[in-house]
Amino acid sequence: MRQLRFDKLGAIIAALALGGAFIAPFATFRANRIVAGEAKTIVEALPQPWSAAVLLVIFAGVLVAAMRSTATLRLVAAFAALAGLALGIGVAAGHLTPEGNTYARVSPASGFWVMLFAFGLLAADALTRLRPAPIVRIVVLVAVLAFVGMLLLSGTWDGLSILREYASRVDTFWAEARKHVTLALGSLVTATIVGIPLGILCHRVARLRDGLLGVLNAIQTIPSIALFGILIAPLGWIAANVPGAATIGIRGIGVAPAFVALFLYSLLPVVANTVVGLAGVPRDANDAARGIGMTDWQRLVGIEFPLAFPVILTGIRIVLVQNIGLATIAALIGGGGFGVFVFQGVGQTAMDLVLLGAVPTVVLAFAAAIVLDAMIEMATPNTRQAEAA
Questions:
Q1: Are 275 and 297 in contact (CB under 8 A)?
Q2: What is the pLDDT of residues 320-355, one digit of tens each?
Q3: Residue pair 319/306 in contact by the 8 Å Cβ criterion
Q4: pTM, two decimal places
Q5: Gap between the Cα atoms of 258 and 333, Å rounded
């Protein structure tokens, strides 16, 4: 039964990859950044040797995905196909753009994205079946990011429209990147500092737990844009009436309401997971600690918190990934971040500018999830014992 499910997934991956390679366009050529594009197949987008090589790698990946093969072979085939696609789209940009033309734009088309998804799914399935150790998953992530960095530094992708958008906004891009990371991480750190003590109090005091979790649940139901808007008035009043508030950056629009909103959204996962983690500590462990004369504080620090830490870290993971995405919307109220490019691109009907903001956001969230998942697994006692055995 397990093997049958494996074959079905392989057939789906193979069908997606073949459709992306032979039915959907591989690249889109536009005379400038806003006009309608001209779809190009792999054969049309690449010079002859490259088109044959990319199609060969894709076809090999399709065969490995469709047939019964080892997880290692599937992983190698997936990474080879992904590398071929990454190199191929860079070559397509140089091949399709007329020499000396600074207005033309070449971007990945639907076929490229479909194949990227198909072989990414193949790689994820292979990694799931191999069950690599947490440190190995991090090494794989670093290797993939290093490969992407090498392509960026080598200039292989310089002809792509998203890189041309980046080239004209280098300083702005990194300034907004710093704002985005500061918003996401700053609100997470603040929520962790506040939320863990609140979670401990909620675990100890049932009345506080019911009331506080109810309020935090209610905040979670407010749409993010609405919460940003709700905070504009009170923060604007504080900036106008509290001496020094405007000096330290508190205003009705900008970073302050975005930071406060992300902080409020972050509290529920941190507080709730702290409560759940502490509640899951075995009673025998607490009884043994009391038996040897440990105080409440010693039990909390030495017994309860270490055992609850993997669950608390799971809440922190949820918050970080959530905040990386939500920080994009902060651009609507002047909070900055990658959302600046997303909304500028939407307003200008320039999808490559949208991608300039969306792609780094996705990469950040994906990398954060992998790293924190590995940390959670390493911090879980049962996992460590199983690996030691």
A1: no
A2: 999 999 889 888 887 888 999 999 888 887 788 899
A3: no
A4: 0.84
A5: 8
